[in-house]
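Backbone description:
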Amino acid sequence: MNLTAKIDLESMPARMRDLPFDERGYPVPWFVAWEDGKPEFRAMDPQKFVDAIRKKLCWVCGDRLGVHVCFVAGPMCGINRTSSEPPSHLECARWSAKNCPFLSNPRMVRREDERINNQQLRENAAGFAISRNPGVAMLWITRQYEVFNTSEIKGNPNAGYLIQMGEPESVEWWACGQLATREQVQASIESGLPNLEAIARSERGGLEALGKYIERFQRWLPA
């Protein structure tokens, strides 16, 4: 399958042009793990996570970040303001949201095999992982974020590190390579909320806190 026919290489940010390309002609993001000389798009290189945080490097291109950073995530991450991936440059994040097969195609699902499957992703991810394609990509532009250890979370099944995203200065929404509509975003929220509600029910006052988070999040939805 020739993916280059479906992506816009001409608009790819200059920072991304030094990235390696796979055998299909698709650029390999900096964070991707390599196995036997081939990129494993479903897995991140754990050392890259450490380097991205310590050296303030873009998750997509690997170059140094500036004052503003952009997290690429789904709306559930926007509600709880938590991300499992470090931020990127806005231009790298925006290009990825428009061209990445998983981010731009709501029907795309992660390929599963005996090495990597959704059950393993949930067991190995820090915190309470939600393994689904949200159908929309949220670009959360902010100046601040903090890394925290999930072992401090009561009832957390998996220890590790997550990122608390700071107050956004703006939020963009993308779906199918275009700016997402409010209806598309709302549909993603409604399909994902049961997961957050199930987690909230396990904590005293969890549902009340979740309600406040949802109300806080409303201002960042598309008009």
User: Anything to note?
Assistant: The chain has a mean pLDDT of 86. The longest strand covers residues 168-175. The radius of gyration is 17 Å.
